[in-house]
Design goal:
With 138 residues, this protein is mostly beta strands. 4% of the residues lie in helices and 40% in strands. It starts with 16 loop residues before the first helix and ends with a strand. The structure holds zinc ion.
């Protein structure tokens, strides 16, 4: 049996492990600058806002909004149902804190810009991909 979803697994490092494995505890995690509170993604050794080095891993709520999306109709790689939605979502914690992801658990045709979504995780080996589904409570 082949895996139903093709995903390129990221290379885990000490700098990104918190992000790719947070789903193990059902948490979407980013580095956060302690002095100024800026969330940092992708991981960096310095805060881009204040150049501070006191960065710690913290979890966000997982709530986000669809900023833009595209429907993938072409089967370049083995994938589940077609079409599926590739989206950029904005996390509610901070302007500019964005992820490229898939919107799942709803028909791709129902994905809309501005739609409220929340994180769900999909495990592949030792990586938990953050995907997003419609947030019924929003
Ligand atoms: Zn900072």
């Amino acid at each position: 049996m082949s895996d139903p979803v093709f995903r390129v697994l990221p290379k885990l490092t000490d700098q990104n492990r918190h992000f790719w494995q947070g789903g193990q505890e059902d948490e979407l995690r980013f580095l956060r600058c302690q002095p100024c509170g800026t969330w940092i993604h992708p991981p960096s050794p310095l805060c881009p806002a204040c150049l501070g080095k006191d960065l710690r891993v913290e979890a966000v709520s997982g709530r986000a909004t669809v900023l833009t999306f595209t429907l993938n109709h072409q089967q370049w790689v083995p994938a589940p149902d077609h079409p599926y939605a590739i989206a950029i979502v904005a996390l509610e914690e901070q302007e500019g804190l964005r992820l490229m992801t898939n919107v799942v658990n709803c028909p791709a045709e129902e994905v809309r810009i501005g739609m409220a979504v929340r994180v769900v995780f999909e495990q592949h080996d030792d990586v938990w991909f953050p995907l997003f589904e419609p947030d019924e409570d929003a």
